[in-house]
From TrEMBL:
<keyword id="KW-0479">Metal-binding</keyword>
<keyword id="KW-0862">Zinc</keyword>
<feature type="active site" description="Proton donor/acceptor">
    <location>
        <position position="283"/>
    </location>
</feature>
<dbReference type="GO" id="GO:0005615">
    <property type="term" value="C:extracellular space"/>
</dbReference>
<dbReference type="Pfam" id="PF00246">
    <property type="entry name" value="Peptidase_M14"/>
</dbReference>
<feature type="domain" description="Peptidase M14">
    <location>
        <begin position="29"/>
        <end position="314"/>
    </location>
</feature>
<keyword id="KW-0378">Hydrolase</keyword>
<comment type="similarity">
    <text>Belongs to the peptidase M14 family.</text>
</comment>
<keyword id="KW-0482">Metalloprotease</keyword>
<keyword id="KW-0121">Carboxypeptidase</keyword>
<protein>
    <submittedName>
        <fullName>Peptidase_M14 domain-containing protein</fullName>
    </submittedName>
</protein>
<dbReference type="GO" id="GO:0008270">
    <property type="term" value="F:zinc ion binding"/>
</dbReference>
<feature type="signal peptide">
    <location>
        <begin position="1"/>
        <end position="18"/>
    </location>
</feature>
<dbReference type="InterPro" id="IPR000834">
    <property type="entry name" value="Peptidase_M14"/>
</dbReference>
<dbReference type="GO" id="GO:0006508">
    <property type="term" value="P:proteolysis"/>
</dbReference>
<keyword id="KW-0645">Protease</keyword>
<dbReference type="GO" id="GO:0004181">
    <property type="term" value="F:metallocarboxypeptidase activity"/>
</dbReference>
Amino acid sequence: MFSYTILLLLTTIPTSFSAIVDPTEAIHRFLTYEETNEFLHTLALLFSGKVSVEKIGETALGRDINVININYNAKKKVILVANLHAREWAAMSSALYIISELVYNGDQYPELSQFRWMIIPMANPDGYEYTRIYDRYWSKNRSPQPNSRTFGVDLNGNFGYKWDENKYRVDPSSRTYNGPSAFSERESSAIGQLLNQHADNTILYVDMHTFGNHIFYPWGYTTDQAPDSGKSRAVAIVGADIIREKYHEYYTVGTPAHLFQRTYGSSLDYCHSVGINVCLWFELTNVGFQIKESDIERFGQEAWAAITAMAVRANQIVDVFYPE
C-alpha cells in the first residue's frame, strides 16, 4: 500500500513512463525489457535520496544494460547480476523482488542499509526479449558472430579469467559457445568492468541463475581449491541453511567443477580473480526454466532470504579479515 507522499510523487512522473511503481507489478508477472527499465527509473525518481540508475553498457542490438544502486552512499557493496542466460526468467524476477523489498521496505531491515546494493536484473536484454517473442529456451545473447551465420554467445563463458583453458572447440551454433575471445561480448565486458571498478569495497557478488538448487563457490575451471574459498563456502552454507529452515528446500553447496562440471570463463571465477571478498553462483529453484507467474513471489522470497543472510555473513567475515 502506498503512502500519501508517494501518491503525490506519482503526479510528477513524466508521461514517457508507464508508472510501473506498484511493487506487486514486478513480483506478480514477468516484465518486458521496456517495463523493467521503466520500473527502475521510476524507483530512482520516487526515491532519489537513496536510489539511482546507471547505464553501464549497451548490447549489440542497442539495448541498455542498467544497474540500480540502492543506498548509493554506503561504502560496502553487494553486487547482484541476473539473467546472464536469457531463458532463466526466475532469476530476473527474483532480482526485481529483491529490488522492490529493499526500496519499499528497506526501513524494516536496518542491517541491510549499511550496504550499497548494485543490482543488474536483466544482464542479457537482447536474449531475454528473444525468449519472450521467438524461442522460450534461448540462452545466449543475440550478437551476430563473425565468419558465421549464427547468433549469440554464452555470456557466462565469456569472462576474462581462464577463458582460454577450455581446450575443446565449441561450435558457434552451440548453446555453450563461449565467443571468439574473452570479453568479446558487450554484456560480459560491462559487468567485468563493474566488478573491477568496485572490487575493493564489494563484500559479496552473486550471479543469479536457474535452475537446480545449488550455490556454487570458486573455482569452476578446476577441481583445485581456490585461495580463500573457505569464506565463500561459509557464506554459501548460510544461504542454503536459511532456505532449508524457512522453505524446506535443500540446496547443495560446492564448486561447479565438483558438483556440475568444469566451467571456463565464468563470472564466478572472474569475480574471485579480481579479489572480491565472496563470490557465488546461485542456481535458484528446482522446477525448470519455466515457472508460473503465481510462483514468482515464492521464489523471490527464497532468493531474498538467502541473499540477505549471505550479505550479512559476508560482512561479518570481511570485518574479521579486513577491519576498517
